[in-house]
Design a protein that fits this description.
The protein has 10 helices and 4 strands; from the N terminus they run βαβαββαααααααα. By secondary structure, it is α+β, with helices and mostly antiparallel strands. Strand 1, helix 1 and strand 2 form a beta-alpha-beta unit. The longest helix is centred in the middle third of the chain and has 27 residues. The C terminus is likely disordered. This is GST N-terminal domain-containing protein.
């Protein structure tokens, strides 16, 4: 029997989202606790993650409520570290290849995607960056997105941790730019969305995004709560527009 897993996250977080996608890909039995980052409960920093950030997980230990986790459970924070942990405890998930060379190559791409997309995300969410930064980030990564006839995902026909990270960011970019949600000047997001959706420059991106959006692990962890997610993102991201 697999030890209990509780994921502490918030639906607006791409970091927590790709961890949840990985858990679904692994067919893990887990529960989710939604952390209110505006009114963070004191027990969260005391008993789960002293840094107060999401995501975090508790693993194993004696049965206990999510808001009073067992002291004997293993607590882990930092999304990419959690992702590695999931890969280790669920090797059958195929989130990383077994072959050492392919494994290293996938890890390289994971670092590239996560770093590039995180930088663009933080820029438009909190630092009044231009949506052009999102376009440039996607364009930079397109060479690694599947070309026609090369497979459905970044490394071929197998969904890996790279695709989990890509899905969490790219779906948010798509929906937020369409609705002009961001710390950028009003109207700039819609312009960028139009470019992404119509320009020949982003043909490969659009095909990849459509494939990711159809993946069951992605659909189950995002679209049905997308309006809630967007409301949360709007609260945080558009609020920063006042300083633009």
């Amino acid at each position: 029997m697999t030890p209990q897993i509780t994921l502490y996250t918030t639906k607006s977080s791409p970091f927590g989202h790709y961890v949840e996608i990985a858990l679904r890909e692994a067919r893990a039995d887990y529960s989710v606790y939604e952390v209110d980052l505006v009114n963070k409960p004191p027990w969260y920093t005391d008993k789960v993650n002293p840094a107060g950030k999401v995501p975090a997980i508790s693993y194993g230990g004696s049965p206990a409520p999510a808001d009073a986790p067992s002291p004997s459970s293993f607590k882990l924070a930092e999304s990419l570290v959690i992702l590695d942990f999931i890969i280790d405890i669920f090797p059958e998930s195929n989130l990383l290849p077994i072959d050492p060379v392919a494994r290293a190559s996938t890890r390289f791409l994971l670092n590239l995607f996560s770093t590039t997309l995180r930088t663009a995300c933080m820029s438009i969410a909190a630092f009044r960056g231009s949506p052009e930064e999102v376009l440039d980030a996607i364009d930079k990564l397109q060479v690694h997105m599947p070309a026609p006839g090369s497979g459905r995902f970044v490394t071929g026909d197998t969904f890996t941790s790279v695709d989990a990270v890509a899905a969490a960011y790219l779906l948010r970019f798509d929906r937020c730019l369409e609705r002009d949600i961001g710390s950028f000047p009003e109207g700039e997001g819609v312009k960028a969305y139009h470019v992404l959706r119509t320009s020949e420059r982003f043909t490969r991106y659009r095909a990849y995004l459509a494939t990711l959006a159809k993946r069951e692990s992605v659909k189950a962890s995002f679209p049905e709560v997308s309006e809630k997610v967007l409301a949360q993102l709007g609260h945080f991201w558009v609020g920063n527009r006042a300083f633009a």
